[in-house]
Amino acid sequence: MKRTLIDISQPVRAGMPVWPGDPPVTTTRLGEALPAISELRLSTHVGTHVDPPAHFIAGGVTVDQLPLDALVGPAWVAHIRGPGPITAAALAGADIPPATSRLLFRTDNSEHPNTAFDPGYVALAPDAAEWLLARSIRLIGIDAPSIEPFDAAGEPVHHRLLGAGVIIVEGLALAVVEPGAYELICLPLRIAGGDGAPARVVLGRGA
Fold this sequence. Notes:
With 207 residues, the protein is an alpha/beta fold. It has a single domain (44-205), classed as 3-Layer(bba) Sandwich (Glucose Oxidase, domain 1). The chain has helices at 68-71, 88-92, 126-134, 156-163; strands spanning 4-7, 26-29, 38-41, 49-51, 72-79, 102-106, 139-142, 167-170, 180-188, 197-205. The strands form two sheets. The protein has a seven-stranded mixed beta barrel. Strands 2-3 form a two-stranded antiparallel ribbon.
């Protein structure tokens, strides 16, 4: 079977939705002559991006210190339908293989146009985080701007997952991805001491 690669990263562009209070993405062409050079300004948590432990955990591992063997390897895409937050019971009924160590969630978020920030996005409930930790998941990804509901007091999902060393990938573009097994390649920018970084994320399937 021919190998298929699916880019599940959002294009970085001026005017793309950002978390409320974060700086907008801007691209500025520096002069009109060739060679073309532009200046890019953006948050470390814009679009498709990786949250390392240092995002919420004092003294935690930074994005440049994340192990590559956690960011690259077999992954499972689960399609969780319905409104959020996603609970442990929903995960238990989602036919996720027991040996899964990298898990991506396609949710109803992927059914909506990504033209403006929507605080009603689907995310994980705290008991879902406990379910994932009990199964030794190393990497979690979701098609939402955050793994956590917008109004979650104290950010318990981030604290539990990142505190346990789980890598979080947010802002995935999964609208055309069917559930099942894939090879994940997730490479965040190697920002020294970074609390996060935009990433190019690809799924592979086939020989």
